[in-house]
Every structure is written in C-alpha cells, then in structure tokens.
Amino acid sequence: MRHMLFPGVTVCSANPYREDRVKEAIDVYARSHSSDANETDRETLFVFMLIDLFNRNESDELVHLGFQKSDMLLECSYNGISCSSNFIHSLSLVFGNCFTFNWKDSSHKLYSLAELGSTLMPYKGLSMAFYVPSHLNYPLNDSEDGLILFLHDNNAIPFFAKNTERLRPGLAHTIAYRKSQTIFLPKPYTNCTTIATGVYSRIHALKARQDLAVNETLMAVWCSRCVPQCVHTHFSIDVSALSAPNVKQKEYWSKRLLRNDLNISLPNDFAVNHNKYVDSNYLRVTVTCGSAYVTVHKQAAKITLIHAFSAVGGQTGL
After folding, report:
1. Per-residue CA distances from 89 to 251, 309, 318 (Å)
2. Sorting pLDDT into bands at 50, 70 and 90, what band is 218?
3. What CA–CA distances, in Å, run from 73 to 51, 166, 268?
4. Closest Cα to residue 158, out of 202, 106, 103?
5. Could you report the per-residue pLDDT of 235-269, keeping only the tens digit for each?
6. CA distance 38 to 19
7. pLDDT value of residue 57
8. Is Transcription regulation set as a keyword in this record (predicted)?
C-alpha cells in the first residue's frame, strides 16, 4: 500500500475576510448606493455587499477581500519535499479563500505515501507552518482566529468532508488519519451509480463543482436526477497538539519575519513586540498516515439473481 495516494488537504482561514480590504470595499459600496457607511450600519452594508458580489459573480473581488495563501503560509513540506506552490485555490460561499494540497488536477502532481525527499522528518506526511495574521481579521460574530482544515479524497469536494478540524494558533497540531471505504451494490440492489453523473463529468473546475454542490437551487435544476456514488471514502482522524512555537522556532521565524522576505502583513509594532506576536499567531499542523491499509466495507447480496431463479424453479417444479 506504499503507493496509496495521500489524501487531499484543504486549508481556509477561520475568519474569511481582511478588515482593511473590507472597510475600503464597504466605503465604495456605500458611495455607489448613496448610503452613509457609519459604524451602526456597516455590518448590514457588509452583508448586502457580499450578496451583491455573489449575485453578480464578482469572484475576483471576493478573492481580493479574503486572505491569500501568501498572507499566512510560512512553509510547506511533504515527506521533506517543498510543496508551498502545490496548492489549488478555491472560493467557498462560507469559508472564503481556501487552498487544497493534493487535489486531482491535470496541472498538479498527486503525491503518494511512497514519495520521499532527502530531508529527515519526525513524521511522514504533510507539514505546514502558518503565521495567522489575526490583527487583520474582520470582526464577525461567528468567526474566530485560526484555521479550518478539511481532509478528503483527492477528487472530492472538500467542503462536504465530515471530519473538519478547527486549528488554534499557539499550537503544533498532529492529525493522524486512517482511510476507509464503503462500497454499495449498484442497481437493482441500491440506487447508487458507479458512473459519474453527466453534469459532474462535464465540470472539471473545482469552484464550479463546489458552487453547484452547495446550492440547492442549482442542484435541482442541473442535477435533479443525480444519484449518490456507490463508493464512499471516509477518513477517521486522531488529533493531538503541543504548545508552539518552541524557542528555536520562535527565534528562526522572528528573524525571517523581521527581514520581511515572506510578504506577510505584520502589525506596525511587530519589531518591538515580535515575541508576543509569534507566540500568539504561529500555528503548525502535520497530517500523517496512521495506517497504510484501507478498511473496506463492501455490501454483498444475500440472494443473487441466479439463486432467486433457482428457488422459484424449485418451488414450481421447473
């Protein structure tokens, strides 16, 4: 099983929007609609602005309002192989800008468990370090500081994954996964299919597939006869965490951030209070395989068609 593919890993900011860019956009929106963007109704204007952008399909503007990968990611390695550029961007209606490693796409390499770099790693798998720029978070009642991580199959829509993890800064998280599959029998036993539904087979862009899947109206129009797939993949996970960064990590990343060679937005007083900021905003997560075997649950017919006809023949004397 060494050649089993590593799963897709999608990371989003737990707070989707940058305050500096949202405030500027609200002012522009208010002027264009002859509204006064005072503090009492900015929240209402923000909601109306987002709805308007979605309705007009202004995806570029929505991307601009959110956090980019370069705003957060310090480093990425997969089994000692640098992977900072191996992410596919997607835009979620709920989570804003998200970035997926090892998603099935013609322009990106898919990594298996067998691929190893030259650097020794304490844990095999995907290791990512982030600086979560919490000072830029737009204040929302239902959003916190940190990251959201989805673990899913390589060709699956990430935002349907059930095992979503919310990751807090100031910790080094380790996520060990085990893969399992449930395989159902196709017709006439169940209503599932082993063939990709027409609308999905024609849609290859991740964003288009997401928008279709999360929108009940679009599903009703374009996929009214869609049936579930016969193969369901699930990742069970165990999560542990330790305090981070340690002394060595804090020293290293403070120097890098002070040199400002990472293009990460920092608070104005970072040079004076860098120890405090690195302590409260550094986040590391390692996703590692807990078992190189796949547990398969396969549905089986208790009575086959041949057995059924034989039984009928026996009953009728044929």
Report:
1. 31, 54, 64
2. very low
3. 29, 16, 20
4. 103
5. 999 999 999 999 999 999 999 999 988 889 899 99
6. 15
7. 87
8. no
Instruction: Compute the distance between CA of residue 98 and CA of residue 156 in angstroms, rounded to an integer.
Output: 14
Predicted structure pTM score:
0.83
Separation of CA 26 from chain center? 27
pLDDT band at 203 (very low <50, low <70, confident <90, very high): very low
**How would DSSP label each residue in the chain?**
-TTPBPPEEEEEESS-BBHHHHHHHHHHHHHHTT----TTTHHHHHHHHHHHHHHTT-HHHHHHHB--HHHHEEEEEETTEE-TT-EEEEEETTTEEEEEES--BTTBPPPBTT---SS--SS-SEEEEEE--GGGB---TT--SSEEEEEE-TTS-GGG-S--EEE-TTEEEEEEEEEEEEE---TTTSS-BSS--HHHHT---HHHHHHHHH-HHHHHHH-TT---BSEEEEEEEEEEEEE---HHHHHHHHHHHHHT-S-----TTHHHHHHHHHHHHEEEEEEEES-SS-EEEE---SS-HHHHHHHHHHHHT-
Find where tokens 């807990």 sit: 290
Q: Which two tokens stand for residue 64?
A: 């601009």
Q: Which domains does the chain have, with CATH numbers?
A: 8-18+66-181+234-300 (2.60.470.10)
CB 249 within 8 A of CB 127: no
